[in-house]
Amino acid sequence: MKNICFGTTSRWRQAFIKKMFGQLLPPSEFQLGEFYSSEFDETDLNSTPCRTIEDVQHLTKRISNEKLGSILNSNTFSPDTFVVCFDQLVVKQTPEGIEVRPKPKDRETVRRYLESYSNSSLHVVNGWSVFDVENQLLTLHSSVDEIKFKEFDQAVFNHLLHHEHILTCAGGFISEEMKEYTIKPFEEIQAACFGVPEQFFSFIKC
After folding, report:
1. Could you say which of 83, 85, 149, 181 is the most buried, measured as most Cβ atoms within 10 Å of its Cβ?
2. Contact at 8 Å (CB) between 92 and 124?
3. Distance CA 101, CA 26 (A)
4. Strand 81-94 relative to strand 97-101, pairing
5. What is the pLDDT of residues 188-205, one digit of tens each?
6. How far is the C-alpha of 44 from the C-alpha of 141, rounded, in Å?
7. What angle do CA 34, 176, 113 make, to 5 degrees?
8. Quick check: helix, strand or coil at residue 91?
9. Which residues are 31's β-sheet partners?
10. Per-residue model confidence as pLDDT tens digits over 135-182
11. C-alpha angle 89/184/180, rounded to 5°?
């Protein structure tokens, strides 16, 4: 049986993994391990020019790999373990090109982000790194999902703007609080929004 440990402190990602783990991975073959905190150099977000979605995909893979390295350097794992780290960025198309949106620094930034999503769309870019301890094998992956929204009403806008955890969310949006405004059914996009794409589970099962 394989043990899968995750490097993530995201409350939404952890909750989604705990909820979906046994449903998306055979419990007879995989068990959920521990969650670990990880580190990366945030200057990467400002110093790396991203002109295309593909550039953002490369960046999320690099950051997830840096997080993974910090965990592997400070912990010891049994051979039957996969260690996984994720990174998520939001991309918004603007007249000037793409804008890469990590976690917002303040609520004025949140306000600007939210105003741009109403009756519009964004792209969620997820990168993840997987280390197979037994085979000493590292693989890096990424995915892109477009999320389209209906027009927000003022109540949800105000709720999100003042949400206690909004500054911890890439792109300044909390998908679970906005699910009634998504064009696609939320169940079809929740994995990408929570930062654990369905492609990840497909890869692990292989």
Report:
1. 85
2. no
3. 35
4. antiparallel
5. 999 999 999 988 988 888
6. 18
7. 110
8. strand
9. 3
10. 999 999 999 999 999 999 999 999 999 999 999 999 999 998 999 999
11. 90
